[in-house]
Amino acid sequence: MPSRPTDAEVDRIFQALADATRRDIVRRVIGREQRVSDLAGRYEMSFAAVQKHVAVLERSGLVAKRRQGREQIVSPVVATIGRARGLLDELEALWRGRIDRMAAILQEDAAAAHAER
Fold first, then answer.
1. pLDDT at position 3, please?
2. Which of 49, 61, 64, 85 is deepest in the core (most CB within 10 A)?
3. Rounded distance, CA 33 to CA 14, Å?
4. CATH code, domain with 87
5. Is 75 among the domain residues?
6. Is 23 helix (H, G, I), strand (E, B) or coil?
7. Looking at residue 42, what is its pLDDT?
8. Is residue 78 situated within a structural domain?
9. Is residue 2 part of a domain?
10. pLDDT score for 93
11. Which regions in the chain score pLDDT beneath 50?
12. Which domain, by its residues, includes 90?
């Protein structure tokens, strides 16, 4: 299981993923590595704007960028994505536990009310 990210890492990851374009970029590079120029051709924004989105993702650790000749290639950082998923899984388990406890309390209350009748 991936190690738990620090609060600062969590903030960077989810701030990066708060933008629809950046989420789309992550989905695209998970499918296969992408050249920044190819990514830029998919959005109605300047090449520089796409580069800025990639830079935010790179700072968050969700993607890595490398040079291949004159091109910049963007690839996913699977470990960071796994760490973010692990945190979401923890939060889901916490909330499911709370919901289960609330359901049990409601059932106990309903049973007690029924017994009083």
1. 67
2. 61
3. 22
4. 1.10.10.10
5. yes
6. helix
7. 95
8. yes
9. no
10. 92
11. none
12. 7-116
